[in-house]
Protein: Formyltetrahydrofolate deformylase
Organism: Mycolicibacterium moriokaense
Amino acid sequence: MASKADHCLLDLLWRNRRGEIQMSVAMVISNHPDLADQVRAFSVPFMHVPATKDIREEAERRQLELLRGNVDLVVLARYMQILTPRFLAEVGCPIINIHHSFLPAFLGAAPYRRAKERGVKLVGATAHYVTEDLDEGPIIEQDVVRVDHRQDVQDLVRLGADVERLVLSRAVLWHCEDRIIRYENQTVVF
């Protein structure tokens, strides 16, 4: 599942095409139509399911219809919607999310702006299993890149995007290779 940002999704599709990540991509669901042509270029079905706060229940019903019985893993490749507890209970498989900060710092929206405001020296990304608690699920992988005061928010976003791609691809690879054990709110990766 993705929204408008393409970097994480396209990286996974490229790695899959090159054989780096052995998985079958059943479909891409997006709440925006922007990525349709790029996804279809990989011969992957693209499903546009508009999702906003006002139509969340209907959107999740449609998403669940598409996913149930068809997938063993859902990947949120910069899908910028919060999934409801109902969705999480009914989807029937693990969900991996990429968060664009080094958790537990800067949960939720606009982490690069908040990182700049705090004057951080490192920005990063975190891949984790999704739970009902926003951005607090068991962490699978994290990485960082050094930044300094000369870089603006857009620089942080650009640098962070590279880290996000790598972190998410590692997490998905390890999951697909069955190298992750979940224990309480943690993971062990072999």
